[in-house]
Amino acid sequence: MEEGAPFLRLDVWLWHARLARSKADCGALIAAGGFRLNRQPVTKAHARLRVGDVLTFVWQGEVRVWRVLALGERRGPAEEARGLYEEIPIAE
């Protein structure tokens, strides 16, 4: 990715994507481990997330792989949040 490309903190983006109720909860999920950003383990809430990045994590007992489509400017309704990413199916 370009160094000057726009980015958003991972915890803020997860909050925009409605993964948890608060930014603090998103930060705690990241700190607990289990998140990968472009295949690299990440435990820092301030990790830089850019459009095109791939996020891998376990959610509700299932491995999820999301490609970031947009950064988002706010925590909007669920329909808006679903537009921030696309789920990449995992081959079984």
Descriptive notes:
By secondary structure, the protein is an alpha+beta fold. It has helices at residues 10-16, 23-31, 78-82; strands at residues 8-9, 35-37, 40-42, 48-49, 54-59, 62-68, 85-87. Strand 2 and strand 3 (40-42) form a beta hairpin. The strands form 2 sheets. It has a 5-stranded antiparallel sheet with strand order 3-2-5-6-7, with helices on one face. Strands 1-4 form a two-stranded antiparallel sheet. The chain has 3 helices and 7 strands, in the order βααβββββαβ. The protein has one domain: Structural Genomics Hypothetical 15.5 Kd Protein In mrcA-pckA Intergenic Region, Chain A. The protein is globular. Helix 1 crosses helix 2. Helix content is 23%, strand content 28%.
Features:
92 residues, alpha+beta, Structural Genomics Hypothetical 15.5 Kd Protein In mrcA-pckA Intergenic Region, Chain A, 5-stranded antiparallel sheet, two-stranded antiparallel ribbon, 3 helices, 28% strand, globular
Portion in helices: 10-25%
Any idea how many domains? 1
Unreliable sequence segments: none
- Mean residue pLDDT: 93
What is the count of β-strands? Answer: 7
Alpha carbon gyration radius: 12 Å
Q: What gross morphology would you assign?
A: globular
The assembly state of the depicted protein chains is: single chain
CATH superfamily: RNA-binding S4 domain
Helix count equals 3
The major sheet is characterized as: 5 strands, antiparallel
Estimated share of beta-strand residues: 25-35%
